[in-house]
Amino acid sequence: MPADFFWGNSVSSMQTEGAWNIGGKGKSVYDVREATANSSDWKVAIDEYHRYEEDLDLMKEMHFNMYRIQVSWSRCNPTGDGEFSSEGFAFYDRLIDAMLARKITPMICLYHFDMPLNLAKKENGFLSRKTQHAFVRFAKKVIDYFADRVKYWITFNEHNLYFQEEVFNISGYLTGEKTVAEMYQIFHHTMVAHAEIDEYLHANYPKLLLGGMLAYEEIYPATAKPNDIFAARTIQEFMNNNLYDAFATGHYSNEVMHFIEKHKINSDFLPEDMNVISKMHADFLAFSYYRTDVVNADKIPKCTPPNNYLAFGVESNRFLETNEWNWTIDPLGFRNVITKIYNRYHLPVFPIENGIGLREHWDGVNQIEDDVRIKYHHDHIKAMKDSIFIDGAKVLGYLGWGLIDIPSSHGDMEKRYGAVYVDRTNHDLKELKRIPKKSFNWFKSILEKNGDEL
Ligand code: BG6
């Protein structure tokens, strides 16, 4: 593997930091969500705010050389559009300096569904242009602040989810019914924000690198019937190609634009937006990859917009094993995605989230033997190497998701991704002790040799 290949961990703020009401932090939409029978609240997470030195030591021991963090909007800019918080920035100062001291390269993501509560209430989030402008203002401030120490940047986590209901259901920040037009409006506002940040970053800091990021799900047709193949292709066009085309070449997909115009939901797509989008140029294309899905066109009601096809048409894949949450395990799908992206765009590809959620409990004595996780990462890393060495793709690195346990996107501590166990449950914080699992030693041994022996 190349000597400068990145191996590491990837997280969001609200799933790791805790410290929800200290250090000058304002509230985000997550901070007002209560625990349920199957989930925790978001107040403490794994308390990385206070334990980052210990967590970075564990990452270093596994030979990680990159950590993708998020700089939380509401920690640095409590109302989202008002005064910045020097205390908020000071936390990330400490965190980033601690990474650099360990030769761990930081990657910053600027948004991970955690809308500042004030903007959620006042503006209904990215439905409003005011939120778009506020986000760009926040992003510029963070870029100016950390440009001397952080080279790798991402704007929106999983940018293709911003016109799916799912993201709003997870974060729960939008109120009222969302029409198709509104979903596209939100998506477009986030894309214009990305384009403005792209322009600013490249004009002012030519050495910094900015990537667009998607949740890249490979979609298989349920059968060889042309309508299944058509549905699978259409989902790819709307959910993946449309955004990567914009990041890489500066224009939305022709098919998607035609859909938007035909349904008259383009009133908010202004000429000046298209102008700034046309100037975009991604330095790398990043994505999360966990699983693949199958679509059955017969299940999709007529008139469903393509961005919702999967919500109706999804079907299980009898050829693949799954975890307890029915997420398929598909390493070849991973290779397929990497190779496909590189073939299409000839830009460096960066898988920045990968992993498997498993239910695990520590008995207080014995090491957790997470062989299923070891196999998952082993097979995915091997598939990535095939993509590099057989298919010729250029890949910057491989980041696992939540490799020190964190609550799931739904706040569930029962679904763990870590190579390190964090001792807490949904309703009992215990001591939040960190306990390496068997996969910790596995990462340590394979990364000591830069993954060469896989
Ligand atoms: C990604 C998100 O979609 O998947 C993370 O960026 C999330 O926030 C991860 O935690 C895994 O999903 P889940 O639902 O298993 O936590």
UniProtKB/TrEMBL annotation:
One of its GO terms (biological process) is carbohydrate catabolic process. GO terms for molecular function: beta-glucosidase activity. SUPFAM superfamilies: (Trans)glycosidases. Keywords: Glycosidase, Hydrolase. GO terms for cellular component: cytosol. Belongs to the glycosyl hydrolase 1 family. This is 6-phospho-beta-glucosidase. It comes from Liquorilactobacillus hordei DSM 19519.
